[in-house]
């Protein structure tokens, strides 16, 4: 167990961590992408619901 944790610590030192500017930028990109995909799914759901309503009349 001690060897495993030592290996984890060594690997974490190799990680390239983001600075605050990069983190804010990437977070913004992800939020915009999530909003876009949610809107796309909402539009498709609305269109399919209307089509189904027309078919079932």
Which key features would you list for this structure?
57 residues, 2 helices
What topology does this entry show?
Elements: H1 2-14, H2 20-56
Structural class: mainly alpha
Helix content bin = over 70%
N-to-C terminal Cα separation, in Å? 66 Å
**N-to-C series of helices and strands:** HH
Describe the structure.
- This protein is mostly helical and 57 residues long.
- 88% of the residues lie in helices and 0% in strands.
- It is built from 2 helices and no strands.
- The longest helix is centred in the middle third of the chain and has 37 residues, at 20-56.
- It starts with a helix and ends with a helix.
- The model has no long low-confidence stretch (mean pLDDT 95).
Short précis:
By secondary structure, this protein is mainly alpha-helical. 88% of the residues lie in helices and 0% in strands.
